[in-house]
Amino acid sequence: MKWFVTLQTKIKGRFFKSNLKEVNLEKGKQLYLTSRFKEAILHLDNAANSEFDSTVYELRASCFQKLDYHYKAIEDFDKVIEFNPLEFSYYYSRAVSKKAVFDFTGQIEDLHNCIHYYKKNKNIEIGLLKTVETDLITAGNHIEKLKKNIGSFQNASYLEIKALLNDCLQQIKKIKPQTNKLRTAVRQIKTKVSTSN
Q: Which CATH fold topology does 1-84 show?
């Protein structure tokens, strides 16, 4: 009979933790949407303590970014990327925080991964590509300014960083014609639909 009571207690504990996590997650989402980031983090911390949920970490990382706690945001995005390494938007979000802490090598590496997984994604976000390209050019300009000291505080050499940067920009050039074809196809479909009505 003791085993039954123990089992019942475990089931209730899991149900309670799961329920509590959902309540904290929902409250955290509501507070995030109303730009009350510090309060949202408190609820998201509680939800994260209940059990792992990538949504909790993703939302909390966004709160940290809004509050300029970029090192904490990077830690949470690390966990989200570990859980789902194929989602390109996570790499972009982490790159934003890496830029804020002047980790230009990390930013370029994340933008490179963003482009890589973006190409494999079926849901193409056309505006993101232009933003990534702008961020890469800005990072390249920063690296040029820091060229003399880059070996002393970065893991990769200047030439490796420049090669990665150039590779990213080349990949974007290859993707652009595909997105232009997609835009043209969408316009043609819309024209056909509007003329048939």
A: 1.25.40
SS3 163: helix
| Distance (Å, whole) CA 77 – CA 59 | 10
Average pLDDT over residues 173-191: 64
Q: What is the pLDDT of residues 28-63, one digit of tens each?
A: 899 999 999 999 999 898 888 877 788 999 999 999
Token pair in block for residue 68: 């300029």
Question: Rounded to an integer, what distance in angstroms lies between the CA atom of residue 176 and that of residue 115?
Answer: 12
Between CA 25 and CA 103 the distance in angstroms is: 31
122 or 6, which is more confident:
122
Which sequence spans correspond to the domains of the chain?
Answer: 1-84, 85-185
What contacts 28, CB < 8 A, 6 or more positions away? 40, 41, 43, 44, 47, 56, 59, 60
DSSP per residue, 173-196: HHHHHHHHHHHHHHHHHHHHHHHH
The model carries a pTM of: 0.74
Which one of 73-77, 115-119, 125-129 scores highest in mean pLDDT?
73-77
Kindly compute the dihedral angle of the four CA atoms of residues 167, 169, 173, 175, in this order, to the nearest 10 degrees.
80
Which structure tokens are listed for 35?
Answer: 């730009």
